[in-house]
Amino acid sequence: MSKAEKTRQFIIEKTAPVFNVKGYSGTSINDLMNATGLTKGSIYGNFAGKDQVALEAFDHNLKCMFSAVQMDMDQQTSIKDKLLVYADIYENLLHHPFPTGGCPILNTSTEADDTHPLLRQKAADAITSWKNSIATLIKKGIIQNDFRGDIDPEQVAITLVALIEGGIMIGKVTGKLNYRNAIMKSVKKMINDLE
User: Fold this and answer.
1) Tens-digit pLDDT profile for residues 100-132
2) Is residue 151 scored above 90 in pLDDT?
3) Does domain 59-192 have CATH number 2.30.42.10?
4) The whole model's pTM is what?
5) CB count, 10 Å around CB of 106?
6) Can you state the percent helix, strand and coil of the chain, rounding each to 5?
7) C-beta pairs of 32-41 under 8 Å, 24+ apart in sequence
8) Where does the HTH tetR-type domain lie (predicted)?
9) What is the torsional sign of CA 164, 167, 173, 176?
10) What residue ranges do the domains of the chain occupy?
């Protein structure tokens, strides 16, 4: 990795938590400078502007989130247990190496839906990718006769994503973790009912 690439990576890693907590609009150049200890010129010498830093910070946060999930999934043997990892992680966020500020998909999509088309598209692509990975697991479970054959994997997958993201949002907005946990119990029930 060249010095310039290392500097870019450093900026992304240091600013990703800031964007995930404060959002795109709430993050100022001063926030980026404080997080990195670099000058405005150093940051913008490596990126075209705040937009580019935000887009790459989102990618970094998303990678951290999916890596945390995959690490736990890799420890499971059954398809059902792999799917149950989602409920466990989102029920116990503090016990997992999750991005600071929580789910970057939720954080970014609620802010960028009307104000930042490129970030909105990244969040939309992340939802589609997440849905597809869940649907792939469900299809594999059907083929292995772990799950019923009458299941629509796409419908179940997008519903699970919606429940998880909705649970996070409701818990975050109300400050009531028991709401989020109650929804994660519904996620577990839905997964268990696939058998």
Assistant:
1) 888 899 888 887 767 788 899 999 999 999 999
2) yes
3) no
4) 0.89
5) 20
6) 80, 0, 20
7) 36/10, 36/11, 38/11
8) 5-65
9) negative
10) 59-192
